[in-house]
Write a structure and sequence with these properties.
Layout lengths: L6 H16 L10 E3 L24 E9 L3 H12 L5 E4 L8 H4 L11 H4 L3 H4 L10 H14 L6 E2 L4 E7 L4 E6 L4 E9 L8 E3 L10 E4 L5 H4 L14 E5 L3 H13 L2 E6 L5 E2 L8 H5 L5 H13 L14 H8 L8 H26 L3 H6 L12 E2 L12 E5 L6 E4 L3 E4 L2 E4 L2 E4 L9 H5 L2 E3 L6 H4 L11 E2 L2 E6 L11 H21 L5 E3 L1 H13 L1 H9 L25 H14 L5 E3 L1
Parallel strand pairs: 2-3, 2-7, 3-4, 5-19, 7-21, 9-18, 10-11, 10-18, 11-14, 12-13
Antiparallel strand pairs: 1-8, 5-6, 6-7, 15-16, 16-17, 20-21, 22-23
Helix pairs in contact: 2-16, 11-12, 16-19
Length: 594
């Protein structure tokens, strides 16, 4: 059973949280990063996984649905549409195969932090048995390809293709879409399924372009230079001095693999991640095949409820559900006031983070290094990580941890390496594990213009923030649907979110078809009402994240709208219930159909 820390200890911990936060604040906020575009485009605008660019003739075609994105968003939307008889679909993606973020992210050790039994969708439909509870990236990518085959999506997909323009044609009631291959598609419905982790970003460090050695972003891993593979030793690094910049979810996974073979590894860390137990296990085929019908939908719902502390986590029981577990184990026998429950939640979070900080000491032998690796913030200030190899790597003699928080930051990249805290680190290779433009505008991520009715640019319509009904449809942009996170509910398991959206879109399109309607658009009044609903509940989350250490959850501690300001504050369980009620009511409330 869990025990909560005493109040005086909590006071001291919170003071430490504030001090660590304050010395990491950068007044530039998200502007401290630069987009991997323009003179830095070579960090993103190439495909190290494709043997060649496939040449083809332009395609001119009318389609019922055009989807941008061949990751889980596009795959699931196409799959759910096929279930309601909508199969005239075209998918467009810059990648060379299905996978989305799992196509691009092939760095050594890449793994999903959500259990595969919940994360990989359509397991019951396909009968596929994941190899491990927590799947590695190569298996997830292969599963995406399996789904592409299963739902006959390969003949309907234009790979190595970028959309350059999308314009609504009011007279035709269709979207006119052009690509960099000279394609011209006329689509009744236009769906955007480009995830937030789609456009790499780089730290805005002076001199990146001056480095004479080799460098790449983690999402464009260069195995031709490093040797090895996702599971194989990076033999090309045996005589190399390597710098890894970033210790977020990506860095946590790749650093142990680089440390295993590199001659020298310097890890540059601004903020430590909290690192919990992974404890991966093979999937038991007997257990898996014995599951009753509907088991995956039930398990995904149970995971959401357990993470949000709604239900017992005995069946799930992993690191994501630990805070909720501590809350349940410390619940009093008598009712609490909201203030008392809030204080207990704070103490429960400190207890979980105390365990994670103690875990560092149990693995890292050098006390000074161990102290630098301890996360001093609330658990969900940043995305929690889970790994059993990261912390022990810092006991290796070839690995150095370089603290670049506060005044010790990286001052520049030179021709020969990295300068931090007044010290030069000469290296042969720099790996930027610096993440993605999650906080950037939609325009930054998709790199093309979307024009609705009367030529209205989506960027102009969203100049004061996102404007949607239920995070899916937009007034003055008929028949356009956004599949992703924004003005809906944020869930740790992203595929649950997008699968629910895909089912919802399939319902809307099939209902419109059955009623003889072909144009779908939210009313201005419904859009305004939903925006008000979203923003009325954002205050509580904003208060929590304002006190967090900088990261993409809180706009790097700077001004501006965070991802939580644009989410449904009651959470994914309540949001899913709301959407279910909306469908059951049947009137398509808030939508104008014609």
């Amino acid at each position: 059973m869990s025990q909560l820390p005493p109040e005086d200890e909590a006071t001291a911990v919170l003071a430490r949280y504030k001090a660590e936060r304050d010395r990491r604040i950068d007044s530039k906020g998200n502007a401290q990063y630069i987009d991997a575009a323009g003179s830095f485009g070579h960090y993103a605008d190439h495909d190290p996984n494709a043997a060649r660019r496939v040449e083809r003739d332009p395609v001119v075609a009318d389609v019922e649905v055009l989807i941008i994105g061949a990751g889980f968003s596009g795959i699931l939307t196409a799959a759910r549409l096929s279930e309601v008889g909508i199969t005239d679909v075209r998918i467009v993606d810059t990648a060379s195969d299905f996978g989305g973020t799992w196509y691009w992210n092939r760095y050594p050790g890449v793994q999903c932090d959500i259990e595969s039994w919940s994360y990989l969708p359509l397991l019951e439909e396909t009968g596929y048995i994941p190899r491990h509870r927590y799947a590695f990236g190569d298996e997830i990518r292969e599963y995406c390809q399996l789904l592409g085959e299963r739902y006959d999506l390969y003949p309907k997909t234009s790979f190595q293709t970028a959309v350059t323009n999308a314009t609504w044609d009011e007279s035709a009631g269709r979207w006119q879409i052009e690509t960099d291959r000279g394609d011209r598609f006329s689509a009744r419905y236009f769906l955007l399924g480009v995830g937030r982790a789609s456009r790499p970003k780089l730290p805005g460090i002076k001199g990146i372009e001056r480095f004479k050695g080799h460098s790449f972003h983690s999402s464009r891993w260069d195995y031709a230079y490093t040797g090895g593979g996702i599971h194989d030793d990076l033999v090309g690094l045996a005589d190399k001095r390597v710098a890894v910049i970033g210790t977020g979810a990506t860095g946590i996974q790749l650093i142990p693999r680089v440390a295993k073979t590199a001659k020298e590894l310097h890890v540059f860390q601004r903020t430590p991640s909290s690192v919990g137990v992974r404890g991966n296990i093979p999937t038991d085929p007997e257990w898996f095949t014995a599951q009753p019908p509907g088991w995956q939908e039930r398990r995904r719902s149970l995971f959401l409820e357990a993470v949000n502390g709604i239900t017992d986590d005995a069946e799930i029981r992993d690191g994501w559900t630990e805070s909720g577990r501590v809350m349940r184990e410390t619940a009093p026998d008598t009712p609490e006031t909201p203030e008392q429950m809030g204080q207990r939640a704070l103490l429960a979070d400190i207890e979980v983070m105390n365990r994670r900080r103690a875990r560092v000491d149990s693995f890292v032998s050098d006390p000074e290094t161990a102290d630098k690796l301890k996360a001093w913030y609330a658990l969900f200030c940043k995305r929690p990580t889970f790994n059993d190899e990261f912390l022990p790597a810092f006991n290796q003699p070839n690995v150095t941890l370089v603290d670049v928080s506060g005044d010790n930051g990286i001052s520049e990249i030179t021709e020969t390496g990295v300068v931090a805290g007044g010290k030069a680190y000469d290296v042969d290779l720099i790996i930027y594990a610096s993440g993605f433009q999650i906080l950037g505008s939609l325009q930054q991520r998709i790199c093309f213009s979307i024009k609705g009715r009367d030529g209205l640019e989506l960027t102009d319509h969203w100049s004061d923030g996102m404007r949607t009904l239920h995070g899916l449809t937009v007034h003055n942009f008929p028949n356009w649907f956004y599949v992703g996170q924004g003005q809906n509910a944020i869930a740790a398991n992203y595929t649950t979110t997008i699968d629910d959206q895909a089912k919802h879109i399939a319902y809307i399109l099939s209902t419109a078809r059955d009623r003889g309607m072909s144009v779908i658009e939210p009313t201005a009044e419904a859009e305004e009402a939903w925006i008000a609903e979203i923003r009325s509940g954002s205050t509580q989350a904003a208060g929590f994240y304002a006190n967090c250490t900088p990261g993409y959850y809180n706009n790097e501690g700077g001004e501006g709208v965070t991802i939580w300001d644009e989410s449904y504050s009651a959470g994914p369980v309540a949001f899913n219930a709301l959407m279910r009620q909306w469908r059951e009511e049947g009137s398509m409330a808030g939508l104008a159909l014609r």
